[in-house]
Amino acid sequence: MPSLISSSYSKTLDNDPHDYAELLRQQGIVVGADIGDPIFVQFSLLEVLAGTGYVVFTEMIPADIDHAELLCTDAFNNNQDPFDIYTSVGPKVYLRTGNRFGQIFFAITPPLNGPQISGVFVEDDFQKYGISSLAYRFLASHYGAVYSDKNQTIFGARLWYAGLPKHGIVRALDTNANNAVLETFVVNQAPQQEHWDAIKLAPEQLKKVVVPVNTTQSKGHVVLEFTLHADVSTVGNDNN
After folding, report:
1. Is beta strand 197-198 parallel, antiparallel or unpaired with respect to 3-4?
2. How far is Cα of residue 59 from the mean position of the Cα atoms in its chain?
3. Is 72 helix (H, G, I), strand (E, B) or coil?
4. Order of strands across the sheet with 197-198?
């Protein structure tokens, strides 16, 4: 399981590591309609080498922001999914590419059957939108599963415990026992086990999620796995 590192640890927005990366997929979403500040976002999945790649988050700027915000708010009020909002609203407004504000780096390393995260960054001004959860969902819809990284901040741990279960299924797996399931996390319920090494996960750090702590045994053989529910579709501006 990933070791927990200090919350002051900073993962940064890096430049594209390779000019020859292959674009595998793009998908659009709209986020922030629920807080009255909707923005258009495009996820771009790029592969550097077989099994190694990254996702880039890029803001899309509407030419008529007032019209776009009204359409997004109406769509959200009709309980549309963020990916569906982009699909229905996007063609009605002219969008131009804005700034890149985040990324995920990953590698697929057997015996894991999907990308294992090695770094996530979202600029401060965009962190209120829950972009990371939606990006993991985007990755899971392409690869079938996403796995936790080796080093996480408290906020990364909170994403796995409290954020991702809202979008799919999160399980702790024991890689020493043929990926046997140790625990499946449930939305708004405290986990029964602690799956990280090092820093204690205090309740206030996890928004009142109480986490049992065991510092006597290494959890390096444990990974967290995120998959989508069978009835969750990630339709949208999707170019495979």
Report:
1. parallel
2. 16
3. helix
4. 151-152, 3-4, 197-198
pTM of the model: 0.85
| Residue 223 to residue 39: CA distance in whole angstroms | 33
SS3 9: coil
Q: Averaged over 24-34, what is the pLDDT?
A: 94
Any residues with CB less than 8 A from the CB of 4 and at least 6 apart, and which? 152, 153, 154, 157, 196, 197, 198, 199, 201
- The pLDDT score that the predictor gives to residue 195 is 80
Instruction: Give the C-alpha separation, 196 to 201, whole Å.
Output: 9
pLDDT of res. 50: 74
The residue to which tokens 């986490």 are assigned: 211
**What percent of the chain is modeled with pLDDT above 90?**
51
Q: What is the pLDDT of residue 12?
A: 65
| H helix runs in 99-206, sequence order | 131-143, 154-158
Between CA 32 and CA 39, with CA 37 as vertex, the angle to 5 degrees is 65
Q: Which residue has the tokens 């629920």?
A: 34
pLDDT at 4 over 70: no
For the chain, report the end-to-end CA distance as a whole number of angstroms. 32
Q: Distance between CA 229 and CA 222 in Å, rounded?
A: 22
Distance CA 137, CA 43 (A): 11
**The amino acid at 186:** V
At 108, phi and psi to the nearest 5? -100, 115
Q: DSSP label at 128?
A: G
Tokens found for residue 24: 């595998």
